[in-house]
Amino acid sequence: MTEFAFPAANPPSVAISGSTERFPIHRIYCVGRNYAEHIREMGGSEREPPVFFTKPADAVMANESVIPYPSRTSNFHHEIELVIAIGGGGRDIPKDKALEHVFGYAVGNDLTRRDLQAASKQKGMPWDTSKAFDASAPMTAVRPAARGHVAKGKIWLSVNGQLRQDADVAQMIWSVPEVIAELSTLFELKPGDLIFTGTPAGVGVLKPGDRIEGGVEGLDVLRNTIGAR
Questions:
Q1: Can you list the residues of the chain whose pLDDT is less than 70?
Q2: What's the Cα-to-Cα distance from 173 to each of 117, 178, 212, rounded to whole Å?
Q3: Whole-number mean pLDDT of the chain?
Q4: pTM of the model
């Protein structure tokens, strides 16, 4: 038996819809700039190669949890996204075989310290401080792919009952199979990986006390509240 210097943390995991089992999280990959309208609102151009970044596995927060307002920001944003849960790993996965590696789908919110991201972009620095902070990846339970893959359907987010993001997953520039295929050329995907697939237009500021609801057609609705600073 391995002896640790202090008790090891429990491995991060997320609920599986309709099951008492949980999905163990290996890594969290995120796709930037995957909806044309969002690219335009952020001042970019369309159909560039996908931008990938990561969040720590323990950044996941459960549905209905309170999200603490993060430190060192005054411009805290929501980004609703379809999440792919990987069940079968591999490298250089062909696009036409990519869906065979999907365990299921969920709804996630790629929470962002936008002011820190803007500063990093300006200096050509990594996005870690703006994207990979504590509690930055709330998400729903994973719905198994046996109930169907997600290629289209309404994706939306509201804050305090006011609709802010409203699009269709079919509008993604890089589809689910394309995202998996491209990412697998950069990393060996493994069971337990999560892929946040990008957000549509309408990202905006969150404040303490805000109630967020968001979803993708056919999946659970993600509900969270923003806590105190």
A1: 38-47
A2: 22, 9, 25
A3: 95
A4: 0.96
